[in-house]
């Protein structure tokens, strides 16, 4: 019985370690994506750090506020150090890239796959219903990038591309929750969720996958600025 | 004395039931308004669901975070199911409407009237001062729609129309608080607040009611992009 | 020993008094800056109050949510009264100004200097690491103005001007924390942090100080709307 308890404690620690690793990588990757938008806007070094940091920790902060826990970076400043290092490195390295936009899209895709897993994990660990856990995964994955795009005045936030985006986060979070329900090792759960979410998004980027969209009737638009 | 306690418990349950009903209806109505903006932007089905859900629960989530309680939808997934059903239905039904923009404006008006009541109620129930309860009503009513319009890149958020909008939410929340102070039945409180807020907004939509606005001096503008 | 306890209680009260004063002034100053943007957009009186209030309390609300305490204005409605009075006064007084834009920039600079101090103070008082306290200072200082500029559809948020802005908040918060570590009287700590932050921003406004920015390679842009 003591052995059981120790084993379960051991498992909890393993989960915490894997999820923290995925979470920190997502933070770094999103911070880079934020700094790449700052590069496109020709900002100065400290604005790189600010945009990178807000993009990096934005999704996790919203997740933690909604779940009623203090955002991780308040007690673990490592998260901020990661954002600062990632942003400063990008300030110097961005000009070496042949396309900042392509790098941004791919960094964002990696981050979405990872944050979908940690968002769903943290909600599920608190006993939330599956639909809530999936939404937490999607919000965690989408919010940092949305803040980044709104803050910097991007015309077309990545989130609303014709290509699948929210859909990839939904798939990643769902696959993670299924593997979790099957009680597979935590590395498999996290890797499976990430691969499903990132894989779908990657396919969408490369092959232009998209879901059928709503088509407005072909008719003059109404509304104050010509909207229908 | 036991009878008194039971009566008061009964009243609390009645309040909870009425307010929850109004809150859920506001969520559905705002989700539809979000999905209608998604229709104007020709998004895909899952983006409809995402925009609809964020618009539907946005105001209530901010309200609950500020009041220090866990957002309702985390523990009651019904709220999310409502958003999903409303968004998906709108995806199919939107093309049947003769004007999506007019439907959006009216759905938004109904939601504003309802969320003004539930925002003010939740703050007042925690013993907040009247001015705080009114602001909570206005923020709850305005935030989801503001998120919707900012997320989707609308040029002129409904909130800042020439027509009264924040004013309608202020009136709705205030009337609710007066009826509450008079200790009228909860159905009367909620209906009175809703009718005042929605009625004022409806009049503004139909008759173009507006408050006098600030007029800038007629003079060339200064500031970096020609602002005064 | 009782004398020690009383003395320390006395000091805590002095800190609370000074910080509350700085915080309330920052709220008033940001509310005015919000109302000045409302003036540029020719809004009505109640929209002035709404934009002014959200700008005034926005930074402090985010700070308090992240630190896990109830936003101050929920329990102290004085904060809201300050915002209302500041916004209404601006509605009448704005046309007396020779340049609303210049007034906005300066009000914003004063607010940034003050909120950088109170943001850093509240985080440090909870035992946060210096890097966390500095970020809290910057976020508190930047968030209200960012909300204001995003809400009102400003093309170039002040935050991302070529002139130093985030940098001024970082300096103000850092100087405050150093003076705090030196255990100087709280008035000196607060005044030192404010003067450093506001002074740097003021110099930037007057003399156009800026940090070197990232320069994009001179090459046609890629990405969906001509981005690189």
Automatic annotation (TrEMBL), chains A, B, C:
Transmembrane segments annotated in the record for this chain: 14-38, 45-67, 79-97, 104-121, 127-147, 159-179, 191-211
Keywords, comma-separated and alphabetical: Cell membrane, Membrane, Transmembrane, Transmembrane helix
Keyword Cell membrane: yes
Cited InterPro entries: Gly_transporter
Gene Ontology annotations for the cellular component aspect, listed alphabetically: plasma membrane
Glycine transporter domain residues: 21-94, 106-180
Subcellular location: Cell membrane
Signal among keywords: no
Membrane topology designation: Multi-pass membrane protein
Domain of life: Bacteria
Primary site of residence: membrane
Similarity field: Belongs to the UPF0126 family.
PANTHER family listed in its UniProt record: INNER MEMBRANE PROTEIN, UPF0126 INNER MEMBRANE PROTEIN YADS-RELATED
Protein's recorded name: Putative membrane protein YeiH
